[in-house]
Amino acid sequence: MATNFFGGLVKGIAEMMPQGDVDVQIFNAQTELSTLVQREKELYAEVGQKAIEQYGAEAFGDTAVRLQLLQSDLEKARANIQELTAQKEEQERKEQEKQAQYLCPSCGYENGEGVKFCQECGARLTAPPSGICPSCGVEIVPGAKFCRECGAKL
Fold first, then answer.
1. Which run of H or E residues covers position 13?
2. Residues 118, 109: contact at Cβ < 8 Å?
3. Which pTM does this prediction carry?
4. Is the pLDDT of residue 130 over 60?
5. How confident is the model over 17-52, as pLDDT tens digits?
6. C-alpha 134: how far from its chain's center?
7. E-state strands within the chain
8. What is residue 145's predicted lDDT score, i.e. its pLDDT?
9. 44-91 pLDDT, tens per residue?
10. What's the CA gap between 69 and 62, in Å, rounded?
11. Local structure of 152: helix, strand or coil
């Protein structure tokens, strides 16, 4: 698909050039040659696929082995891209969460790091401690500053 885009772009540029110029004619001929070579490669690939379907990969010996190795490498590359994409999405999600904690829920003002109250309207930015005590694991009463079980500061 990128080849088609590039080929179309080159063809469009060539059409804007003066057609009587020999350099332009050479350029156009080279562009046409590149397009034909690409189409030839695509047809060879199609023929190869049909041949493998008809005769089986084993009939092509070393070439079939190289093809299988290449396909394995392609799968690894695709898996790597998926993994890296997932990592990027996770990083972006964490960054959005980090930025959201400094965004005032009342007025939307973006506060700096470490600020507990909005610098624009004074609203509390961090939720009061709730959930489970990090020291002993007991459920914490919403709004508590210390754990009722172990006394740890929340």
1. helix 2-16
2. yes
3. 0.49
4. no
5. 677 788 888 988 999 999 999 999 999 999 999 999
6. 35
7. 131-132, 139-140
8. 85
9. 999 999 999 999 999 999 999 999 999 999 999 999 999 999 999 999
10. 11
11. coil
Amino acid at 116: K
Amino acid at 53: E
When computed from its CA atoms, the radius of gyration of the chain, rounded to whole angstroms, is 32
d(CA 82, CA 80): 5
| DSSP states of 100-135 | HTTB-TTT--BPPTT-SB-TTT--B-SPPP-EE-TT
Contact 105, 111 (CB under 8 A): no
Distance CA 11, CA 85 (A): 34
SS3 63: helix
